[in-house]
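Task card 7
Instruction: Convert sequence to structure tokens.
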Amino acid sequence: MPIISRLFCHGTAIRRPLLQVLARNWHKEAIHVTWEKPEKGWTKVNYDGSCKCKTGNCSIGGIIRDHNADFLLGYAESIGRTNSTIAELAALLRGLEIVLENGWTDVWLEGDSKSLVDIIAKRKPIRCAKVQMHVERINLMIPEIDNCVLTHIYREGNRTADRFAQMGHQFKKPQIWRHAPPNEVLRFLHEDKQGKTVLRRR
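Output:
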């Protein structure tokens, strides 16, 4: 039986060229995203910011794990009204503060804002004074860590940090979890540790 060359939507014919475009978009190869463990002796910090578009209220969160993907620490807090860029920077800053407080020396920082990673890692120019202030603080803190790398990961691989950031909206004071994570992130922690791959559609 030949392939049907037209679809009918509300009485309007959609001809084959459009169908072929739709088919190509539907079957575009997905990106396989997997959270990766750090090397032995290293500590990994995943951070994220959350911004509610309607109110402008933002929160931050992050998670710190060892080379076995075992939970070491989680953090979350509300930071008031700002924008998503500042929220991402604030989440990274808080993660760096915790790293230095705990004396971790080999650290992998990872977030899902590529523009932020590019600004810091590639020293891209910044026009916003508030963003510049946060970046300068980050650039002063990173050299205090013996070995430190900063990388980007797609949001699908940063789900645990994202959940901490989402939780931050509900707290009036900064929250820290040590050794035992909250129930809200247990599923993501387990999936990350097992190396679960999440598909990201292009």
